[in-house]
Amino acid sequence: MAIRVTGVSKRFGVVRAVDRLDLSVDRGCVMALLGPNGAGKTTAISMMLGLAPPDTGTVLLYEGSPVDAVRAGRVGAMLQDGAFVPGATVRDVVELARALYPRPLDTDRVLSVAGLTGLAGRRLDKLSGGEAQRARFAFALAGGPELLVLDEPSAAMDVAARQAFWTAVRSYAADGNTVLFSTHQLHEADEHADRIVVLAAGRVVADGTPAQVRVKAGVREGISLDQAFLALTDPSTPTGTEQ
Ligand SMILES: Nc1ncnc2c1ncn2[C@@H]1O[C@H](COP(=O)(O)OP(=O)(O)OP(=O)(O)O)[C@@H](O)[C@H]1O
């Protein structure tokens, strides 16, 4: 098991960001974490990475603590607002990640996979939004981690970058690695995830393959996952099964 979350809750004042979450993720799985704004995705991811402690419950990565897994170089993460070292270049950030991990990938391979070969010497503060996101992906990938955690990874990427990104993710998972990503682009979850977990108000409201999530939502095969998502997270929404 790559990830085992048991009875995890986290509150911020009166807000229950994550509410008694149970979640196990097998090694080699590509899992999408979906949910409306404020559903608790980033909070859950922070706890999985050991960046924030749960109020109650436990998180295990590879049957140990998240901090131990991160220290052992088993985890790579791409966070939404990951800041960069000022003045460093794209190549520097890849080299930095490589230096932190015991089994890093080859620098040129990482640059190529992230679509950054031509930008290797560019300063990070001179990158466009989508390029900076690719640099964050390169940083997450460079250490060759067993678990990649990606919080809204493709949000600013253009179409070509997005396609290359998903090809890289699928090929990384095909090597036996585990990938957990959050997204609001539900078609990406539909196309690229083996398993989808939908959160609403900090709780799991659906968990399964894209087809199983549609069944749970009561929408037909062929109806967009958006409709299933809306039905699961806002029960007043029509499911598209009426006609
Ligand atoms: N540091 C914080 N202090 C107070 N409230 C917080 C904090 N972090 C998150 N929250 C609240 O916890 C809830 C869950 O937030 P979280 O960022 O985990 O949601 P999310 O599913 O990632 O949302 P989004 O899709 O908008 O990124 C929200 O109501 C948010 O306002």
Automatic annotation (TrEMBL):
Give the keywords, sorted: Antibiotic resistance, ATP-binding, Nucleotide-binding, Transport
Annotated membrane topology is: Peripheral membrane protein
UniProt keyword annotation of Acyltransferase present: no
Query: Record keywords: ATP-binding included?
Result: yes
- Principal location: membrane
Pfam families associated with the record: ABC_tran
GO function term, MF aspect, one: ATP binding
Compartments, as annotated in UniProt: Cell membrane
Concerning InterPro entries, the annotation shows: AAA+_ATPase, ABC_transporter-like_ATP-bd, ABC_transporter_ATP-binding, P-loop_NTPase
The ABC transporter domain sits at: 3-226
PANTHER family, sorted: ABC TRANSPORTER ATP-BINDING PROTEIN
Protein name per the record: ABC transporter ATP-binding protein
